[in-house]
Backbone:
């Protein structure tokens, strides 16, 4: 390449490698693309990222399907170094697998692909933490099922950050973004009492869903409780209880858990919700727990975002979770 | 009601009846809601409006499903009187049937409901012009099929205003917003040569689709041709040719036929498209033709609109079409 | 209606009754429209909602007049069930009276109508809590006067959440949105010492107004104080003091009390203001107090809002207040 | 000033005098502020600009009151030199008188001030062309009346560019932005047949207003006619006819005459309206006519504008009109 | 790759290869990235694309530096097939060289790199048409100089589409976006009479610049002239005249030539400018001319764009130019 | 002026003097423009404001250069009276010097002018607190150098509120907005250990910068620490430590220290940042300290702001700082 006559150019796809200190790494320079030829490397990954560009299963119209691509663009503005913790994520091997293929008009095909993708991840990268970037919340049912397909002997718990129960009935809606937790309970993938929801509040859930939650023993902490006790303690308590009951914990973050004033890109976020620094703290604590084994981030619609604020917050949620993950003693 | 003690109030749903001349009528005061009890009135309607809030069948994420509701809000700012033509639409009996019920996760149910709705319209309001407010372009296939179900002996032609052919293959996409015309041709609902597309241009269609169009004899006029000849003449020519071949003409307006600079609410509108006054003129001419028997307006996404500009333009398209309709000698 | 041939349609005005559990109720399904024929029902209402679409009395240009309609649209996304409190509002009888009729160019006619409307409410629905959705803050003077017209022997106190005193001089402005509290004091409708303002702060009030406030004995807590002590205690203290002095407490919420970062739809909100969860808590506590007898929400401009965030917050303020109201021992 | 130690500063109010050729003049450097001390200069002005920040008389909520200030900011980006015509406006003496003082809650005071302002202009700057920057259309009635107060023996005609007749009844609305032309006719300030309206179209006027227009002999050209014949010829014809009948012509430009796609800052602009280059041409022709003696620009709401597009268009309307004015043989 | 276990995934960078007919090609699938190892291929390119992310040389703050990246994202929504002309661009070999490296605080380094990049292009891809995506207009001076460095014996003419002369003085501004044409004339790179500017109009140029233009014999057509004669004829005339005088023609498109109502992303676009279909036609004609040998597109600021409208228009300008280029008889 | 015939007008530049109590003062009525003729007054100023409209030295494209003008417009909505503290700023003599003249293409000229401006301020208004309104953060290096030029014997410390270290290397970037603190350290204007940064957090700084910071002994508190301890205590601690070491403290506020959800106009603000009320409290405390001798506010881009929220917050930062300043015992 010595003879290449364009010393004055930055060439694609290297647009972003300029103007920075040599030892600075941006997130997109750290996250690799999967090496499809080299099977040996597959088992060495510490984490794998999977995009799920599906939101036509959303009750109200959503462009959350565009979030995986928006995420990849937004993480270019983050370094791999967490200053609060003096910790660099870049020693983790992390790979971006790309996006689950979606069918335009047959949602069941989409859902099956998602389940298959998680199965493949658990099969081929068994050491790696799956990080799934949705998409709407319907994907969580399929991801946990896919996880369970591989780990059928393990009891799986769920730690959910959400304004909603997501316990609506599939008889009416099919497998939509309002139903995933109910689907998992009804299919006996997960037990009701192994689901911990943090962030519920206000006038955004039907009473019938609260009754269903109580019947199946689902655990939850409202924002009012959470604010009084402090998010750290609440998350710790949920993890402690789950720890006694389950083998693996799946973390699902519905970005609408955030307050409406801080998350324009989470279109059904509501007044009275969580603040950003609370959510970042919460997922870091979750990431630290040995039994936490997968996570997803859903219901983030980049079309409705303002100045990438919510997409960047979503990326930070992922990085804070990975910070916790790296803080575990391996 | 004499004794009602609130002479100082405007009561819902009468919010809009204030501050206007007595003989002024706004569109929402003219369009009635269907009288479900009184079957005799059903056959007296001159036109029926049907909302189709479906856009999860759209290739890219779309909120066109919110357009029927946006339409109903926007038409409150229009009078029934067309000043250019000195003609008042309010002598037409027109009814709003409401919206086709959609399933959240099973698009085939949605499509079947749409087809059934058009069948019911053609059965119960046989004198009425159906005006369908989409939704995305996938609905057109079902609407024409529903029409054909009732009028199975009639040859149906299509006058399409569109930047795209909408001839993509359902094998790949299923019945999406890129496929309706192909579906109609392949199902032999409509013959290729009976489809007239006005507004195609630029770099927005695959060559293969043009080749398919030529093979099936589909007729089209690019924007470049249209601009040179004049929209009036082009539409007249298309109607004249269709008149010789078919029994009924179905008009479908994809709002993305408009130039990208004038239609923010038509998210796949493109540079080089039609201007608003051209489209208004075109549909008025179409409305005048005796064989024109149904029309739809699709691919208008109110979430992406700016200051209701495109939604209002869509409403005007409907009213200009009805102007032409009223100008027929009944 | 058995024979109605459109089983596949949702008909207006029932657009919103779909896709939900049978026992779920949305706010718009709970709030009734007034039954003008049936006088017996009038006295059975627990609460009445009155819209006041007036904002041409605002010092700076405002579209707060569009807020009542925006409120009604926004409350469709709220359920009647408050999860934090495990309490369902739907056992309250609540009616929407509609909007006060406004004159386009004679503001004194508007104001008189508002006063008459409150008088009619207090006369015909004497058991009901009036909830008034403004409009700008000028309406509060007329609402309290209308209240006093009926309850002329009662001493009325005011609990105000506001960034401003609203004590400006009507000699200069007439009865504008900067003057209502002064109007009430000068007309001896309310005593200065019976007004409690929470939320004042920063550089948004003239010193002369503070001096006037001190002269008339008006009580206030700045945001700085409020933040130190905690909103709960401050509101409780204000209510306790008022309880000793007055017969009835009127609550007025100027949405500009919120911080500029959380209330885009409150155009004169300012840096350093209240956060949403604080305001929700404050009004719930106020709603619980036996002497609180009316409330209004003002200065919310939907035209300036971003993604309905502030309108939804306003609706939540109303629902949190009603939560407190229902928590009283009747 | 030699000793002033800040050679490196641009001082207010001279912020804009930098980075330009010495012989370039921006509009704000050309338009002077009135010299209140020096009465001799008053009669030497060729044109005077008057701001009228009134829009609380608008039927729908409007911030057109902010337009005079927005205008003054926007004209800083225009030079005084018209390249199309190779003509420099800067040889005209032009003065900015400032804004009419408005009352916050008494619209009749506002209107009286406007009338007085025009009377003062006609009295003290009798050689100057008044250019009035609104504000909503209600101001036109007062401006023409003020003009007539001074020129009571002269017959005044009106050349109006507007989507609406503005002939609504003051009995219902008072003197609002929908009524000015009717007010002028009913007060016999102007005869119906001396009003020429260009730009009416579509579904934006009640039939009753058209009937009223016909009864009083008002002249108008719809956009459809205008587009067929060409704006130049239509304007010329209107001026020719007015020339035979009246002594003075008042030009009023309601910015909502523009198409909805080109005028985001004219909130009631509509589909099917005029394009910008047509309006610019129209007002230049009007400016050239010897009898044209005043003009106003109304109903421009900077709060709804996008990137100053409509405000800049409004400024260009003023400058194109002045171009025509300067092209007269004095 | 058979064994790769993710048949259900679309992998980066292949996100965009889904859901399309096999013979459909999107622009990003056609434009290759340069093969730095394989020098033989370098001379086979028909066209090369160069990004120039420089806009800190802009008089007013600009983010035009982000345009090359925005272009690359936007062209993914274009096919290679031009339907109006039944012509497929994909038979052209075209390569994306990437972006010129810019210095953050030393603009002269940026400019030198730009000049060097054009020199390298003309040296190593002598058969290829350079297409340069700016950046602000200051880059044109360096690009033409770089071109001239290699072709020093050739007389170069310029065909400019612009609202401005760009003839301001570098003594005051340095080499900014207002000065490039003057720089080229003063450095004798280009003769004044060999510059043809189409699109000048209104109040956006100082008289002194017009005088300078006349002194150096610069040719121009205002928008008023252009609209009367028709853009086709004007462009043809300019090319004919240039053809007689020069060896090579450089085409520069300043996007602010477009009307303010159609180009939100061209921040100094103005009222009275060119419409999109006119510009597309103009550049296609230019592309057809044998002597046209390079082109650039400048002053497009994606940060100010609305829904990618202007960026997409810019991409279409490039594709329309290449359409003309391919229509030449090679 | 008695005879001036326009009693009904507000004249420019007096637009804002209306509709207010006589003893109310808005900030723009308090801040004077410098009296260039009257040198005696120069030394009587308590504070001077300097605008620095430079942002072409910003790494990513920025319009922070427009902030000084935006500031001046925004402060018209603030009174001089701080209600929280019952303190009126208007007894301070404060003058607006205007803006530093900037060169369009030579950033070193801009920087030199900035340094000279601070030198002149310290020379001619030695009693005055300099308040500098940027502009991007590159200006801080020049301002502190200019300060040091005059006070060369004094040890200067820096109190920085920032999400970033701003310690990047000028070898790569030149003197950009990422480098000022490093420039000051390397030029020995300031010692590393005399820099206190509050607000650092998350993934927004390269590890190498943290290492550099540690090497030079720079002091910092992350947001996580700050939130735990409380902003008041952290600021107090930083001031206490600085007090022991230095003679003068320069305060620099990079608005990106604010959380991304509260500062749309600070384009590189990030998730997890400071809240507005915390920053206001912090700068007030800083203003109270006797050794604090200058402050700047940087990286505020009004083009990206939403409804002036961040610009108004910036103005409040200035006023809160001045509140502290006035609270000192003089």
Residues:
């Amino acid at each position: 390449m010595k003879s290449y006559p364009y010393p004055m150019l930055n060439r694609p796809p290297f647009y972003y490698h300029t103007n920075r200190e040599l030892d600075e790494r941006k997130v997109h320079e750290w996250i690799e693309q999967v090496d499809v030829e080299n099977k040996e490397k597959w088992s060495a990954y510490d984490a794998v990222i999977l995009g799920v560009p599906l939101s036509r299963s959303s009750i109200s119209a959503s462009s959350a399907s565009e979030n995986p691509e928006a995420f990849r663009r937004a993480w270019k503005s983050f370094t791999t170094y967490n200053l609060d913790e003096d910790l660099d994520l870049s020693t983790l091997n992390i790979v971006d697998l790309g996006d689950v293929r979606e069918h335009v008009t047959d949602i069941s095909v989409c859902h099956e692909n998602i389940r298959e993708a998680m199965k493949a991840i658990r099969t081929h990268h068994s050491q790696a933490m799956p990080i799934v970037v949705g998409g709407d919340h319907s994907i969580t049912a399929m991801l946990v099922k896919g996880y369970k397909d591989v780990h059928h002997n393990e009891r799986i718990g769920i730690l959910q950050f959400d304004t909603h129960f997501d316990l609506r009935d599939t008889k009416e809606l099919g497998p939509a973004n309002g139903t995933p937790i109910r689907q998992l309970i009804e299919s006996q993938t997960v037990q009701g009492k192994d689901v911990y929801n943090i962030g519920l509040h206000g006038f955004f859930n039907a009473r019938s869903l609260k009754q269903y939650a109580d019947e199946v023993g689902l655990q939850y902490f409202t924002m009012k409780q959470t604010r009084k006790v402090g998010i750290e303690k609440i998350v710790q308590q949920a993890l402690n209880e789950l720890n006694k009951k389950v083998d693996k914990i799946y973390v699902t973050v519905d970005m609408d858990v955030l307050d409406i004033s801080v998350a324009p890109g989470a279109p059904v976020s509501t007044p009275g919700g969580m603040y950003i620094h609370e959510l970042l703290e919460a997922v870091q604590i979750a990431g630290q727990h040995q039994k936490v084994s997968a996570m997803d981030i859903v219901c983030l619609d980049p079309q409705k975002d303002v100045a990438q604020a919510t997409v960047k917050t979503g990326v930070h949620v992922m990085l804070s979770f990975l910070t916790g993950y790296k803080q575990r003693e391996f």
The interface with chain B takes residues 59, 168-169, 172-173, 200-210, 222-224, 227, 259-262, 264, 267-268, 270-272, 304, 306 of chain D (CB under 8 Å).
